[in-house]
Design goal:
- Affects the rate of fibrils formation. May have a primary role in collagen fibrillogenesis.
- Belongs to the small leucine-rich proteoglycan (SLRP) family. SLRP class II subfamily.
- It comes from Amphiprion ocellaris.
- It is built from seven helices and 13 strands.
- It is an alpha/beta fold and 401 residues long.
- Among the domains are: 89 residues, no CATH class; 120 residues, Ribonuclease Inhibitor (Leucine-rich repeat, LRR (right-handed beta-alpha superhelix), Alpha-Beta Horseshoe).
- The protein starts with 10 loop residues before the first helix and ends with a strand.
- Bound molecules: 2-acetamido-2-deoxy-beta-D-glucopyranose (NAG) (5 copies).
């Protein structure tokens, strides 16, 4: 918009650059992929330059009738990528202070707060200019993060370090102390044996799945009031203690594929999704799902659950949309709420189809909202389903036996 008012041919280009700096940051926060943001900013530039170009063409058409009559656009180099070197070189020349990017990384001039060092076989941390907010270091072979590596990186908002070879004893104890604005930390697929100390309280999304973590302590996650996503799956955690209780914004918790023998005490009350599959949980505490206000998805497949370990009415809670209890040792269908939509019970030892598990009363307004019901791999067959089921399970579009 600013560009539309410009008259002097070179001045618009500088305005475009300024426009960039203002918007690139905003775009990064509303998209999940920074490379996508670059495309967006490039489009922005193109529009901007095209508008400026019109003015320039008006200006130049008087001076350069010959070059235009040849059909050659004098500003083509600015917005096409036919000669990328020239294109980037020109923009970089306009971008002040672009010389601090380490050789092994890319710092696109179009997105000056991001640095891409992913998938380059790095074994050590590159130096990080202080302007960087989004740092991509995934898919390398980095083993250590010494305190000195991040002294200048105090503006980091995203730090992507998944698929490296980080070991807990090679992460400096002060590394995270200065990253006070960090919101996303991806550490999945490394060799960590514990959650790094002093993680920033500002974190919103912490992914540390596929490591070798054995223990999570309350101090590890203390004060993370904004944490909404926590991926801890595929580690070796046997006890969570009360480490999760204080996470008041947590909506997605994945601790599947660990060594839990019981459900963690004191789960955060605002969870939407709770994934506990592939552990060794054999029983559930009384009122286990009673305290949640927004819980919709509960996955507990591949545990050791038996009928005896599940108190009556554990799953008869409204609000639940999906319940996965497949690959356990259940002999009966547990009582579920009429509002449940998807129930997975395949590969248990269920011997009887109890319609009362779904409907205690059946009439015009009382019926089950169940759409998906899987009972295959149990000890019943289709003939065990009573004909009255059609009334109770009138919304079920898929029943597998
Ligand atoms: C941090 O910044 C200072 C001053 O710009 C520089 O001398 C130093 O090498 C930087 N350190 C790292 C690890 O990037
Ligand atoms: C990380 O773990 C993998 C597999 O568990 C192993 O092959 C590799 O040597 C480990 N790397 C380090 C640096 O410990
Ligand atoms: C959580 O987010 C809010 C709003 O963005 C912010 O004001 C607050 O400081 C954050 N809390 C922490 C612990 O960083
Ligand atoms: C499930 O809970 C509702 C209300 O909380 C109750 O009316 C209903 O009888 C319960 N279902 C069974 C089968 O106990
Ligand atoms: C279900 O049946 C009970 C008892 O017949 C009735 O009071 C209630 O209004 C019905 N509808 C719903 C949605 O619970």
């Amino acid at each position: 918009m600013q560009c539309g008012h410009l008259v002097v041919p070179l001045y618009p280009l500088l305005m475009c650059k300024a426009f960039y700096h203002q918007t690139s940051d905003k775009i990064a926060t509303i998209t999940t992929e920074a490379s996508y943001s670059c495309v967006l900013t490039k489009i922005t530039l193109k529009i901007c330059v095209t508008m400026a170009m019109r003015l320039v063409l008006v200006f130049l058409s008087a001076l350069l009738p010959f070059s235009l009559s040849q059909g050659r656009d004098p500003l083509a180099w600015l917005y096409t990528r036919q000669s990328p070197g020239y294109y980037y070189g020109s923009v970089q020349a306009l971008t002040a202070g672009g010389g601090d990017c380490p050789e092994e990384c890319d710092c696109p001039p179009t997105f000056p707060v991001a640095m891409y060092c992913d998938g380059r076989g790095l074994t050590a941390m590159p130096s990080i200019p202080s302007r960087i907010k989004y740092l991509y270091l995934q898919n390398n072979a980095i083993t250590a993060v010494p305190d000195s590596a991040v002294v200048n990186a105090t503006n980091l908002v995203w730090l992507m370090m998944h698929h490296n070879q980080l070991r807990s004893d090679a992460i400096g104890t002060k590394v995270f102390l200065k990253l006070e604005g960090l919101e996303r930390l991806y550490l999945q697929h490394n060799n960590l044996t514990s959650i790094p100390p002093n993680l920033p309280r500002s974190l919103r999304d912490l992914r540390i799945n596929h490591n070798h973590i054995e223990k999570v302590t309350p101090a590890d996650l203390e004060g993370m009031d904004n944490l909404t996503i926590l991926y801890l799956h595929d580690n070796a955690v046997s006890d969570m203690g009360a480490s999760l209780k204080a996470l008041k914004s947590l909506t997605l918790l994945d601790i599947s594929g660990n060594k839990l023998t019981k459900v963690p005490d004191a789960l955060p009350e605002h969870l939407h999704q709770l994934y506990l599959e592939s552990n060794s949980i054999d029983s559930l505490p009384e009122g286990f799902l009673g305290g949640f206000t927004q819980l919709q998805y509960v996955r507990m497949a591949r545990n050791q659950l038996t009928d005896k370990g599940i108190p009556a009415n554990t799953f008869n809670v409204t609000g639940l949309v999906e319940l996965d209890l497949s690959f356990n040792k259940l002999e009966r269908i547990p009582i579920v709420s009429t509002t449940l939509q998807h129930l997975y019970l395949q590969a248990n030892q269920i011997k009887e189809f109890t319609l009362g598990s779904f409907c205690s009363i059946v009439d015009v307004t009382n019926f089950s909202k169940l759409q998906t019901l899987r009972l295959d791999g149990n000890e019943i067959d289709r003939r065990d389903i009573p004909s009255e089921s059609a009334l109770c399970l009138r919304q079920a579009s898929s029943i597998e036996v």
